[in-house]
Predict the 3D structure of the following.
Amino acid sequence: VILETIPATAGVLIASEGYFQEVREICDDTGAMMIIDEVQAGLGRTGHFWAIYGGMYPNEKVVPDFMVLSKGMSAGIYPLSTCSYKPFIEKAVFKEDPFIHISTTGGAELGCVVALKMLEIQSDPKFLDHVKAMGKVFGNGLQDIAKEYPQLIKEVRGRGLMWGVEFYKEEHSLLAMISIIKEGVLLNYCGNKKDTLIIMPPLVVQKNELDEIHIKIQNGIKKVMELRKK
């Protein structure tokens, strides 16, 4: 069973509380492997080291059999990805043939040095507390903007510093994206759900920077509203 904790390209969807725990139980009952993709949602993005372990809901802490990671692991400056797994899988699969799973970019010494430093930073409780605090500020700000434009924005959803803004119409979402980029904020639409914009500020962002981002997002959406009236 392969799942992305917060499906980014599908629209930054937030599963109901208990969903992943139930999947875990079904996998345990049937002998299926639970494989979780946290390429975008993991490593502190939600204010927790793992999104699936407290990052979605504080009391929901699920441990998958496999965890796929990348991107934030190297601060986005070095091509690196990993596939982590429980010890029993290593004994069952990799002990006799350790080279069964290799890759083109395997053995990247510099990448591993970068990743080790990033993991040290991302696992620091103070760093994670900062992400939680900034995530609350950012999410509240986006919710306030959505309340100002109920004709355009259908829903705002996210965790930590990973948020999606869903519009009623795809054309308004794409116009807002272009307008906001022109204001100076880089963002994108969700690949498989173009009516939703995905916004992921750096985890080291400060409150004054988020305030500026909110203003620029608001200005961009305001221009879409003005075009809509014409």
